[in-house]
Amino acid sequence: MGRYRRDRINEEMRKELMNILRGVKDPRVQDAFLSVTAAQVTPDLKYAKIYYSFLSGDEKEVLQGLKAASGYIRRELARTLNLRITPELSFHRDTSIAYGAHIASILNNLDISEPEEEDTPAEKP
User: Fold this and answer.
1) Is there a domain that residue 123 lies in?
2) Which of 26, 89, 90, 117 is the most buried (most CB within 10 A)?
3) What confidence category does residue 12 fall into, taking pLDDT thresholds of 50, 70 and 90?
4) 47-53 and 88-93 strand pairing
């Protein structure tokens, strides 16, 4: 399978997962303000890594909620995506947003000052 097709499947899966997660009734997932940042499907379409980030809640609780709802999520994906095989989902927390915020705060706290000019007598013509 070509890389271009897999990229399209990844993007469609990410979009559909965002819609499906809005309908999950588990309070661990519903109250966490989840966002799916990426989806990576293996070349044989049997497995998919789903990268997510969230704003509130405990990391372990959110992951348990996602694992508990994975059957429902997979069934809804099979219904909406027209694939022969619906991939088995594994959820992974995406820390790139937190890492980016950390780097931005470090850059904002840097004390950058202009180098002071030394007092040198002006050259006389």
Assistant:
1) no
2) 89
3) very high
4) parallel
